[in-house]
Write the structure tokens for this entry.
Amino acid sequence: GAVVSQHPSWVICKSGTSVKIECRSLDFQATTMFWYRQFPKQSLMLMATSNEGSKATYEQGVEKDKFLINHASLTLSTLTVTSAHPEDSSFYICSARNFRDRAYNEQFFGPGTRLTVL
Amino acid sequence: DQQVKQNSPSLSVQEGRISILNCDYTNSMFDYFLWYKKYPAEGPTFLISISSIKDKNEDGRFTVFLNKSAKHLSLHIVPSQPGDSAVYFCAASADMTGANNLFFGTGTRLTVIP
């Protein structure tokens, strides 16, 4: 199966700072990457969909100026949490999909990044 | 509003027996359903899927059943093995081409007792 990595796996930061999370597809080209957030005992919630070379599409209620997404290449997408606050503490997971390859009709998930904002 | 629901947060089953995980959805536009398995500190991994044109899909020990009229699907694992112990997420999509814009349930933690 396709492999997706995330970096870092966990990060602790002070309130007001910005944190960048990287998502990489290691053995396939990801035309689309998705960013999810999971709070304790809740389901994975889609934050935004990012297509290579274009602006991300954000879900309702997700602030695009706070969660900056860049998908500059077919193997890398980044999520930057700007001016992080304690309520942004969560588990952030990315997934990737290659729409050009019909065989890949599932999303492949990264291992997730645990963000704790003090 | 939770469009995909997994009402059982946990399930314990003896090794060798059948595990049945349930999932309900509210959006009648959903036409593609997936089950993911998640170990601690790892991302979800795809397990099995079913499109709305079918009512059953089988892959080895895993079978997914879909009841569109009841807006209900279930995952059967038989026989259950200790390595199956994980959190299982049900997901749904309104895109027939595959897993775009997935809506996830809250997960069911399966424990298979040796």
